[in-house]
Specification:
- This protein is an alpha/beta fold.
- It has 2 domains: 238 residues, P-loop containing nucleotide triphosphate hydrolases (Rossmann fold), CATH 3.40.50; 246 residues.
- It is built from 25 helices and 11 strands.
- The strands form 3 sheets. The chain has a 6-stranded mixed beta sheet, sandwiched between helices.
- α23 runs antiparallel to α25.
- Bound molecules: adenosine-5'-triphosphate (ATP).
- Adenosine-5'-triphosphate binds next to β3, β4 and α4.
Length: 659
């Protein structure tokens, strides 16, 4: 069985042939630095590490390439397909990749093609280690070994079908951040600029370097430009293996040609490239070394691209002169439409391929690679510079990106800021001069306004949830491609939300407290600040576990609603039924409300009311007479900390980029 983290692991360190650091003559990655990041499996095989650098007469210090083959053997993927028959839900096992085996050698460019839904993406996911192990059988090897998740991240980059770029950054900024996540402080600013300029140049993005990627607020790059930027981001790390899912979709033919030519260039430096592609032009087709044709999860051909036309010709499917071989081969195996006159039965073709000499040859290559060939080779080709202080550099660059994103994305911060200020001014004006009134009705106004502040202002944090869910896709891609760790992501988000929330709390407090004449500006500010921090932490956690933001909003609203109900205002704590009293204690709203109430009522010595002659009497009525504000706000903060831990755990375990 193919496992998520192969147990027969070895340490693979990426060495560079053209990394800027090495060009400058600074130390490249070493076995010891690599091991500091490694897991136990890695450490066990550390001893087998050999670096094999050599002096290249033309390029300076380069790696002498002894790269590995990517091998997969008898890989099948089975999913539970849900359908409806006569109104009844039916679950059925569906094989979407069936016993696929293959080998791509270093320096080869493999193109996987097939009609829509034939299993190309699934196959690529398997090679990239992005498929849940419960769905998989078969084995994937690199250098004769199964690799752990971390090792895979170090040697391969995966450009997925969907672009998950952040809309508020320009092309140059996007690449600069990606380079920093790959290299940290190991490259200087000048080296970083060289890397970024080179990447933009290669993907034809130089003329749009200052254009925003774009999002729902602003139109930015075109679809094809986004595609090229996604590729450039991943190629920045010079990975040993590059897997790309439809890199040319949305590109014009000239751009497609240029992109594949760039990938071809990588293979000349002994990198391995596997790509799925629809409709390659004849010029693009000519650049493929290997070609794999799939249909309905079956492999119909895996061999040289040059030999494909001849192979199918011998089966009676002769490609007409002047016809693009790729178009012809796809048309004969597309069973979705009736238009095509020449049509093959995919199952028949699959059986024929399995019994062909081509398949026997591939199997033999796989076996010889696994038993001898690659087995003795211990190092990979990718020129990735080890990051110095990875946690610190990840934290700093993530924080910088977060702060910029918060400032630039109106939905994340500024819309909420305006709403908070507007609402708080409304509260201030609605309860204008309340502090000078000590009638019985002023008690009601005080409790109601404080409950509104404690409940509704906190509830408004839900507004940030869609952006968390949206950004999660970027996190998953960057994490799966080994750019940074979830812990750096969580810590940087926490620190970056502090200034914005403090500003909102300050302006909101300054709008309510002086106008309404409420007591204790400092405590009010502290209670609002800590509560908003915790509420946002909760929203981060809910956003991380919700499959869609609408579900997340419903979930966060429900949680807020429950905590409001049991906080002790709508029903006093002593009246809450025993079987629900736990809700009163596990909701952070309880502790923030107590702080707001105690802050307001404890200094008031007199009310014109026989039932509540003083602030203390009001507090006694709500079971809040013995509040210690510092203590209660610490509890509120601890809830926030707990939510942050849950957020981190959820990112760590649920968002590994596996499907
Ligand atoms: N988790 C899943 N559950 C059910 N069916 C799935 C699942 N994942 C993939 N499939 C199905 O498996 C088939 C292959 O999907 P895949 O995305 O690999 O195709 P593809 O060749 O990449 O298609 P396209 O070219 O349109 O991107 C499709 O029919 C898809 O609906």
């Amino acid at each position: 069985m193919l496992t998520a983290d192969g147990d027969n692991t070895s340490k693979v360190v990426h060495e560079g042939d053209i990394s800027p650091t090495q060009q400058e003559g600074r130390p490249a990655s070493t076995a010891s630095s690599a091991s500091s990041e490694a897991d136990d499996d890695d450490a066990a095989s550390e001893a087998s590490l050999h670096l094999n650098r050599d002096e290249d007469p033309e390029d300076g210090l380069t790696v002498k390439c002894e790269p590995h083959s990517l091998v997969w053997r008898d890989v099948s993927v089975t999913v539970q397909a849900v359908s409806r028959e006569n109104g009844k839900k039916k679950r059925q096992d569906k094989v979407i990749v069936d016993k696929s085996s293959g080998i791509v050698k270093p320096g080869e460019l493999l193109a996987i093609m097939g009609p829509s839904g034939s299993g190309k993406t699934t196959c690529l996911d398997v090679l990239a280690g992005r498929t849940a192990s419960s769905k998989l059988s078969g084995e994937v090897f690199y250098g004769g070994r199964k690799l752990s998740q971390r090792q895979r991240q170090r040697i391969l980059s995966y450009v997925a079908q969907e672009d998950t770029l952040m809309g508020q950054f320009t092309v140059r900024e996007t690449l600069e951040f990606a380079a920093r996540f790959h290299y940290g402080f190991s490259v200087t600013k000048a080296e970083l600029a060289v890397l970024v300029n080179e990447a933009m140049d290669e993907m034809g993005l130089t003329h749009v370097q200052d254009t925003l990627v774009g999002d729902i607020f602003r139109k930015g790059l075109s679809g094809g430009q986004k595609r090229r930027l996604s590729i450039a981001v991943e190629l920045l790390s010079h990975p040993a293996i590059v897997l790309l899912d439809e890199p040319t979709s949305g590109l014009d033919s000239a751009s497609s040609f240029a992109v594949i030519k760039r990938l071809r260039g990588l293979t000349r430096r002994m990198h391995t490239v596997v790509t799925t592609i629809h409709q390659p032009s004849s010029e693009v087709w000519a650049m493929f070394d290997k070609f794999m044709l799939m249909s309905r999860g079956q492999t119909l051909y895996l061999g040289t691209a040059k030999g494909a036309v001849g192979y199918f010709g011998t089966l009676g499917y002769v490609c007409p002169s002047y016809c693009n071989p790729a178009d012809f081969l796809i048309s004969i195996v597309n069973t979705d439409f009736k238009e095509f006159t020449v049509r093959a039965d995919p199952l028949e073709l699959a059986n024929h391929y399995t019994s062909s000499s081509l398949h026997t040859e591939t199997k033999a290559q796989i076996e010889s690679t696994l038993t001898s060939g690659d087995q003795g080779i211990q190092h990979a080709v990718a020129p990735r510079v080890e990051k110095s202080c990875p946690m610190m550099s990840d934290f700093l660059f993530l924080s910088r990106r977060n702060l910029l994103n918060n400032l630039r994305n109106p939905g994340i911060y500024w819309v909420r800021f305006v709403m908070y200020v507007g609402l708080c001014l409304m509260i201030g004006l609605m309860y204008l001069g309340l502090g000078d009134e000590f009638t019985a009705t002023s008690i009601n106004s005080r409790t109601a306004s404080l409950f509104y502040v404690a409940a509704f202002l906190v509830f408004m944090s839900v507004a940030v949830l869609p952006f968390i869910v949206e950004e999660r896709a970027t996190f998953v891609r960057e994490r799966a491609n080994g750019m940074y760790s979830p812990i750096a992501y969580v810590v940087s988000h926490y620190f970056c939300m502090i200034p914005g929330i403090f500003l909102i709390s300050l302006v909101s407090t300054a709008s309510v407290v002086p106008l309404a004449g409420m007591n204790g500006f400092g405590n009010f500010l502290a209670a609002l600040f800590v509560s908003l921090l915790t509420a946002e932490s909760m929203v981060f956690f809910v956003g991380s576990i919700s499959p869609h933001y609408i579900i997340g909003i419903a979930l966060a609203a429900g949680m807020n609603g429950m905590m409001m109900l049991a906080s002790g205002f709508l029903i006093v704590a002593s009246d809450i039924p025993d079987y629900l009293i736990w809700l009163h204690y596990i909701g952070f709203h309880t502790y923030e409300l107590r702080s707001f109430f105690y802050n307001e009522f404890s200094p008031i010595e007199h009310f014109d009311s026989t039932q509540f002659p003083s602030g203390e009497a009001v507090l006694e009525f709500f079971d809040m007479e013995d509040v210690n504000i510092a203590h209660d706000l610490t509890i509120v903060w601890a809830f926030g900390f707990f939510f942050q831990i849950c957020f981190g755990l959820s990112l760590y375990f649920l968002h590994r980029g596996k499907r």
